[in-house]
Amino acid sequence: MTKNTPTSFRWPLLVVVLTVILAVMSYAFRQSWSRQVTLESASIIQSEKIASAEAQIKDLAQQILVLENEDQRLKNNALQKEIAGLKAIYNVTLIQYEDILNLREQSASKTTVLENLLADILAAISKNDLKTAQDTSRKLATEITKEKSRLASLAQTAVVAIPANVPDKSTPPSSGYSRQKVNVEGLGYFLVDIVAGDLGSTKVIVDTASAGTCGNDCPVLPLATYVSRTGAYAGVNGS
Q1: Do residue 187 and residue 126 come from a single domain?
Q2: With helix as H, strand as E and coil as C, how does 131-165 read?
Q3: What DSSP designation does 20 have?
Q4: By CB distance 3.0 to 4.6 Å, which of 43, 107, 134, 202 could disulfide with 197?
Q5: Residue 149 included in any domain
Q6: Range of 82's domain?
Q7: How far is CA 96 from CA 99, 114, 127, 131, 142, in A?
Q8: Is 60 helix (H, G, I), strand (E, B) or coil?
């Protein structure tokens, strides 16, 4: 009996140890499985949130596209651009109109073409034809520049200022002397002095300051001296 006692105590102890080990392993397995389930659930929830966010973004983008392509909105945007363009061309046209008025004040100006182009611009604006108005405006700007350059060139060649009291005549006097301004088409007004005489009763005299034949360094006199000493009523220099 004394020798068999230790063996009888080992079996219950072994059973207890195995039971504890199994219990611990079971608890650890349940905890691990629970964490795995929790992580998988969280991942699913996160994926669902991401999918929902993507769907909302796509839906918002579609709404924006619909709004941008909405007929009325497109019409409004196009109308605003058209109105802005017409306002711009209208302001330019006003400046061009003032330029034409200033050019018309100059006697040598030619503004018929400019005025016709201006009328075409105004007609296009009234029809909301922006492209035609812009094209015609650019052409008018070019023509205005050309006319200004032409008049500036004429002004540079003008030496004598015509007095305001000089009459504007395009025909010579029937007889005698006349000072008048003559309008030359495309060149403007010129101041001229005209002496009219009857060729049947007028004698032409050739006078010189030299008493004899002169070949070089000939003496000269003022034109008025030649006229007065011959009793003439007009004279002209010659060679």
Answers
A1: no
A2: HHHHHHHHHHHHHHHHHHHHHHHHHHHCCCCCCCC
A3: H
A4: 202
A5: yes
A6: 71-156
A7: 5, 9, 20, 17, 11
A8: helix
Residue 136: Cβ-neighbour burial (10 angstroms; 0-12, 13-18, 19+):
buried
CB within 8 A of 85, min separation 6: which ones?
Answer: 130, 134
Residues 138 and 182 in one domain: no
- Alpha carbons within 13 angstroms on the beta-carbon side of residue 185 total 0
In a domain, 20, yes or no: no
Same domain flag for 82 and 102: yes
**Mean pLDDT, residues 166-175 taken together:** 87
Question: Collapsing DSSP states into helix, strand and coil, what is residue 183?
Answer: strand
- Interhelix angle 112-126/130-157, rounded to 10 degrees, is 160
Q: Could you tell me if residue 40 is inside a domain? A: no
Task: Look at residue 135 and tell me if it is in a domain.
Answer: yes
* Percent of the chain whose pLDDT exceeds 90: 5
Q: If we measure between CA atoms, which residue out of 185, 190, 92, 192 comes closest to residue 139?
A: 92
The residue with greater pLDDT, 132 or 31, is 132
- The residue behind tokens 């219950």 is 12
